[in-house]
UniProtKB/TrEMBL annotation:
Domain ABC-type glycine betaine transport system substrate-binding: 42-302
Signal peptide start-end: 1-22
GO cellular component, one term: ATP-binding cassette (ABC) transporter complex
Name the UniProt record assigns to this protein: ABC transporter substrate-binding protein
Cross-referenced Pfam families: OpuAC (PF04069)
Entry keyword annotation includes Zinc: no
UniProt-recorded Gene Ontology molecular function terms: transmembrane transporter activity
Domain of life where this protein originates: Bacteria
Keyword Protease tagged: no
Keywords, alphabetical: Signal
Length: 307
């Protein structure tokens, strides 16, 4: 987690502030290891500006609020390049992150690809004052996606199968994908694939889907948990050389706000969150009823005994 509700999710979350003034010491999730039950001040939760990440921020916020922790869920912020400085300066305290792309953002020379290797490497490069909590098994990776017609015409199952024809294809994706190490530079280096042109669109949103569907672009960056891939008959090309590293969902938090209680709540979410859950949650967001992200978050938390 995704496309058609990006704007709606942004608008809804922009207007939402979750607050709770519950006390600390008697909370059942406090593990008694010495950390205070309540962090000082509210935990300010941010997210990237695409529905899945916005929804994850809601899940974090509602679960913490249910345990008496004061939180504020802030409006989505375009991309990692835009929100990460807020984590460094303290204007943000918590975001749902993805291990592989966060590692590459922090260490452009990182080579880890497998889930545990990526997570271990990430723990070693997270700046002082920030902490990654336990990673979930849920994974949402970037993928090079083409239409079924393009896949059949070029007999392409993998990104490498495009190499001979990349010079004829226009690629679409978010602006930052053009320069990220595992974006266009990585595809060029790993697969020898240099596209004819790059079109800056949105973060796996309706602009990208529409451009791929109408032929404005012939290949695009979409997320593997995006239900519009299947809905439109698109093909997510295989990545046998692992240009895209493991991308497990993980809470990234201000260390000062990571009390024992907060860690236990967030780690409990990670223990329950699976890739299939992300697929199901994204499908709900894009369903005909178009439910609010906060409603979808509450239903998932309730179903999993987390509130």
């Amino acid at each position: 987690m995704k496309r058609s509700l990006a704007g709606l999710a942004t608008a809804l979350v922009a207007g939402l502030v979750l607050t709770a003034c519950g006390g600390g010491g008697g909370d059942p999730l406090s593990n008694g290891s010495g950390g205070s039950a309540q962090p000082a001040g509210p935990i300010r939760i941010g997210s990237a500006a695409f529905p899945e990440n916005t929804l994850l921020a809601q899940i974090y916020g509602q679960a913490l609020q249910a345990k008496g922790v004061q939180v504020e869920v802030l409006p989505p912020i375009a991309s990692r390049e835009a929100y990460f400085p807020g984590l460094r300066d303290g204007s943000l305290d918590l975001v749902p992150e993805y291990t592989g792309v966060l590692l590459q953002y922090l260490d452009k020379d990182a080579t880890a690809k497998a889930p545990d290797e990526v997570y271990a490497a990430l723990q070693g490069v997270v700046p002082q004052g920030l902490t990654v909590l336990e990673k979930s098994s849920a994974e949402n990776k970037d993928a090079v996606v083409v239409t079924r017609e393009t896949a059949d015409r070029l007999q392409a199952r993998t990104i490498g199968d495009l190499a001979a024809n990349c010079g004829e294809l226009v690629f679409g994706g978010p602006p930052e994908f053009q320069t990220r190490p595992d974006g266009i530079p990585g595809i060029q280096q790993t697969y020898g694939c240099s596209f004819k042109e790059y079109r800056s669109l949105d973060v796996g949103g309706p602009l990208t889907v529409a451009a791929l569907r109408d032929g404005t672009v012939q290949a695009a960056d979409l997320f593997t948990t995006d239900p519009t891939i299947e809905a439109n008959g698109f093909v997510a090309l295989e990545d046998p050389e692992n240009n895209f590293a493991a991308q497990n969902v993980v809470p990234l938090i201000n260390t000062a706000k990571a009390t024992d209680q907060v860690k236990e709540v967030l780690n409990g979410i990670s223990a329950k969150l699976t890739t299939q859950a992300l697929l199901d949650l994204n499908a709900q967001l894009g369903g005909p009823d178009k439910p609010n992200p906060d409603t979808v978050a509450k239903e998932w938390l309730t179903a999993n005994g987390l509130v």
